[in-house]
Amino acid sequence: LDNFKPILVQATGAPMYFLSKKYTSIDQIINTPNVSIGVSGIGSISHLAANEILKINKTATIVNFNSMMDAGTAAAGGHIDVAVAFYIDVQGLIESGSVNVIGATGSPKVDKNLLLTNHKLKDAGVLTANYAIFSSVKMNKDRFGEIHDMLIKVNGSNSVVTSYKKDQLNIVNLNPEQSLEWYAKERVYWNKQVNLKIGRAHV
Predict the structure, then answer these.
(1) pTM of the predicted model, to two decimals?
(2) How far is the CA of 83 from the CAs of 51, 53, 186, in angstroms?
(3) Alpha-carbon distances, residue 25 vs 18, 82, 99 (angstroms)
(4) Is 86 within 8 Å of 17 (Cβ atoms)?
(5) What are the C-alpha distances in Å from 158 to residues 63, 126, 152, 154?
(6) What is the pLDDT of residues 115-150, one digit of tens each?
(7) Are 193 and 105 in contact (CB under 8 A)?
(8) How far does Cα 24 stand from its chain's mean position?
């Protein structure tokens, strides 16, 4: 990580949603013994989100799937209790009413009662996906500035903005100094997250 720095932080804050066919609130998941939580791979960002539940409910079990879509489909079928996914991957299941949206990381524009930060899970507030482009720290300063300027222009194009909106991202367009500050904070946070004890899992 020391060998790279962000040349453009494009967009931040894509939330993850907790979905269930059986349950209707995140408090039920926190307080019910032996709930199963589907994620898109052990060590993935959805696994880290599920670990927020395991901090309180030590009996919960992580179930590994090939994708968030697969986990969401399993939750809709009642094969697992909960799935963690980005909205774009399970939009059809949500809009068809096949699953209940019972929780969310970050600060999406949804019912505030869904936010995990309002349910004793304070670290979930920044547990979101961010988009950034990185360069070598050895890149020539002038070349770095030239590429940054080109990227930031493209980042505001209609097609790119539309794509970000589908992923529920916030466009930020940070300057190089702000990007370095963001990167430093992200490294501290994610280092903490990935070094937490991993809960028991079905792989």
Answers:
(1) 0.84
(2) 12, 12, 25
(3) 9, 11, 12
(4) yes
(5) 38, 27, 13, 9
(6) 887 777 777 777 889 999 999 999 999 999 999 999
(7) no
(8) 21
